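[scheduler] slot 2 assigned
[scheduler] job type: sequence-to-structure, two independent chains
[scheduler] chain ordering preserved from manifest
[runner] begin chain α
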Amino acid sequence: MFWSMWSSSEPQAKVIEAAVADFKAANPQVEVEVKFNGRDLFKLIKPALDGGEQVDIWEGDPSGGGGLATLKEHVFKLDDLLSENALGMDKSVKDSIQPSLMTWVNTLSSSVGLEEGGYAIPQQPYAVLFFYNKEVYEKAGVTAVPTTWEEFLGVCEMIKKSGVAPITFDDAYRDLFIGGYLSSAMGSDWVDQLVKDKTGEMWNDPIVHQFANDIVMMREKGYFSEKIAGSKYPAAQQDLVLGQSATYLNGTWLPIEVSNTAGPDFKWGSFQFPNVSNGNGKGGQQGLTFGSQGILMNKNSKNIPAAFELVKYLVSKKAQEGMVKEALAIPATIDTAWPEPLKDASVAFENASVNIPWGGGINNAGDFASVSIIPVFMELITGKINAEQYVTKMMEAAKKYYAGQ
């Protein structure tokens, strides 16, 4: 039994069905049942496994939904199986996967109390980057993507003069801009300390003042879309592909999500969050939020050899090439061409040396982000409070939040 996180109507399901068909043709004696649960899988998988249901394989983000932290009593350690030959490649399964992804997966085990090793096989990689409309950038005269914050502001000014809103985002991704700035300046470990500071004093750090002042300056110069205050997902991504906004901080799943609107000729570009000045030297573009949906196996499965044989088909180079073609996805296998809309993203993915958490760690303190950090940020970005009021309000919000713990 294989539980998929995709719905049967999604392009990823088409690739999975083809891989399963190939497996069945090569192993006619093995019965395979695939259940396309969609994202409901993340709510259903733990009760199913806790109840003893024989789900042999499932998909999920090892660091998130359907992953190691919530399912550590069920996951099977794959190290020995990973040495088996990969399908269609003259190397092991482990060596057929991008090294950065395998390293990342292996670091997750000890952090959740598991014996060190690999408990998932990366299958659907992702990264968080600024995506931009190349046509808008070109018309504005932008000839190179920015690598520093100062260059980014210069690009925003050029785009603003061209008559297009330089930056957009919606309610689903507001956290990325806050955490992106602070982690670029100070690194995600510092951001983790910031959001967990029970005294609230860290919110008075000079870099927080700089952040607040930069947001005010950008708002006053008209660098943010006028729609940001009430923008509900997926409105912002539609604005991007329709040329009403130029730049949107999001994940590498964005091109496929808007492919119907964008069309085949849309010119995608992407770049990492720029280096923010006056930091502590621990941030910058050495860090990147990246990871992967993966394949996990049930340690109580009665079909481990056959199940892993199917896994090899699901993570084979042929299947990954199918994901590139059908879902515009980043391939997990080495030496596999990236889809055209994500070609720029490959540079960031291959160069990053530090994996940073979602939002640069801005969400690391439970619901503090949703109840205080994001709402106060939105007050700042919409002009309801100024920079000094922002700092004061965040210091007070942290004290209040932790006083109630």
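[runner] end chain α
[runner] begin chain β
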Amino acid sequence: MSDNTHGGPADAGPIDVLVVGLGFGSAFAPIYQAHPAVGRVGLVDSNAERLAAVGADLSIADLFTDLDAALAEPGWDAVHLLTPVALHAEQVQQILASGRHCASAVPMATSLDDLDRLIAAQQRSGKNYMMMETARYSREFFHARRLLRDGTLGRLSYFRGEHLQNLDGFPPYWLGFPPMHYVTHALSPALALSRSRVESVRCLGSSRLTPDHIGVAGDGFGTEAGLFRLRSVDPDIGDDLVANITLSFFQLGRSYMEGFSVYGTEGALEWPQLEGGPMKEFRAGAVPAGGRGRAIEDGDIRPAGEPDLLPIELRRFADGGHGGSHPHLVHEFVSSIVQGRSPRVDARVAATWTAPGICAHTSALQGGQEIAVPDYDADLATVADDADPAGGGGR
């Protein structure tokens, strides 16, 4: 493609993408290789052995052990960052300042000051920033969106989200990680479906960290449970909404669970109790004659997702992990560059979804005090939408 100073639609040819961090990035590199609008794919990882192995497996010749060296090379239109959380804020700023578009794994950052810095960096650069939130592009989210749009849910009433994951034995930088700093997987579906932001949060910590679990973040909790007050830009969807979110990373003897449940006046959709199981769908009927309470039908559902939103070349990846979200994330990021528009989860939306967790952890440390969440003036009207497919799934 052209040099890395372009700012408008990428009409000069395919875009070249660097994938940084192969612990998770190895799942994304082949999707970029398959995307019809992507040219070269390069890999960056500080682990030279892993870098060489993934490069050989995918027949990728452009390999770098250092992000600085990769960004010093000419070309490379976009970078997908999948490095440890503590590095996100500085590396995103570095990438944007180099004149490249940047996609980043969640969370956007772990402090409100860094969220402000990243928004400012994106504005200065004129390049795209996208937070690659898997929950927003999962088959489960797509199914919930269908139920909302066809009236099955009625008006939205309430949300619940959980992310329970034992981090014992994970790399040292995860030690004592504040659970709510990783809130986006459990909270973003509620915010996207309701087209809302969080006004305030009250959060309590449970199970004070034992000395062997305390990390660089200092004293904290193994589990944090928050009540998030939402404000929607579309009151026809629902009003006075609350999301009840629980996250746990330490000191909880429970198997992995990461998901959301959505409740409406006419129906509901619940995440399975066990990972990999079916979701449960509920539909409310009338109050039976002489009875009390509305009749409720329930059934198991395994959502199929929406592969038709993808180019044909990417549909084979739609059965993958994180609810089949990976090809949708790649396609949205690439499409936003090609079309010269902001991605759905741009810097302001990402901050809107990330800040509530930062404020929730602050609330937990203050014994549940209500904390106001900043308003980042994000465009929430279309955050749950996807452009209609055209040309065999391209956008």
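[runner] end chain β
[qc] chain β: The longest strand covers residues 196-208.
[scheduler] slot 2 released
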